[in-house]
Amino acid sequence: MTEDHELVQRLREGDESAFAELIDSYGATMVRVAQMYVRDRGTAEEVVQETWLAVLQGIDRFEGRSSLKTWIFRILSNRAKTRGQRESRTVPFSAVAAADEAAGEPSVEPERFFGRDSETPFAWAAPPVGWPEEKVLSREALDVVRMAIDALPDAQREVIRLRDVAGWSPEEVAEALEITDGNQRVLLHRARSVVRAALEDYLNPEVARS
């Protein structure tokens, strides 16, 4: 939390570069999350602007009980819900997450993962083989990953982006998106299975799904 403390202090002192850092770090993700609650991107961007104003106005009251980013995203979700209610278009992220969690079957066979009650739930029990490093790190492979993530259901897409792209902790994701730790683990597992299946099809198509 030392980094948070320094950033908060800079914000309280009116340091514009600190505010710019926050926008660079979280702005795009905030728009995507806001779109879960409101009717279109334009409205989501308005909600994000309202959130930034609330952050600046409320930074003196930030007590550090949670991380700065989860505090910001809590403000965002509350404002997005309020806007969605006014527009009769609000669906709690938890409801979207539950639907995404329940929908469909895993894209990779369940037996290739450890079970929910294992020491490493949902980790690979039978990891992929035959993936040449030069192909895994190629631009084409990264494009496969991006397209697979973009095609995921809303909640799965945001969870994998926060966990695996942005590097958020499980606790931060659950708190910011207002879902349980179990929800976020299942959503991440489903999202990762889809992405890994897409990579297997690309990197080793002759044995993928065999």
Describe this structure in words.
With 210 residues, this protein is mainly α. The chain folds into 2 domains: 2-86, RNA polymerase sigma factor, region 2, helix turn helix motif (Rna Polymerase Sigma Factor, Chain: A, Orthogonal Bundle), CATH 1.10.1740.10; 93-203, Arc Repressor Mutant, subunit A. It has 10 helices and no strands. It has helices at residues 2-12, 16-34, 41-58, 68-86, 93-102, 133-136, 139-150, 154-165, 170-177, 181-203. Helix 4 (68-86) runs parallel beside helix 9 and helix 7 (139-150) packs across helix 10. The protein is globular and about 55 Å long. The model has no long low-confidence stretch (mean pLDDT 80).
Question: Summarize this, please?
Answer:
The chain is mainly alpha-helical. It contains ten helices and no strands.
Strand tally is 0
Largest sheet: none
Distance between the termini: 47 Å
Total number of helices: 10
| Shape type | globular
Q: Give the uncertain stretches in residue-range form.
A: none
The helix-strand sequence is: HHHHHHHHHH
Helix content: 55-70%
Number of domains: 2
CATH architecture group name of the largest domain:
Orthogonal Bundle
Strand residue content:
under 5%
Which whole number gives the mean pLDDT? 80
Rounded radius of gyration (Å): 19 Å
| CATH topology (level 3) name of the largest domain | Arc Repressor Mutant, subunit A
In CATH terms, the superfamily of the largest domain is Winged helix-like DNA-binding domain superfamily/Winged helix DNA-binding domain
CATH class of the largest domain: Mainly Alpha
Given helix and strand content, the structural type is: mainly alpha
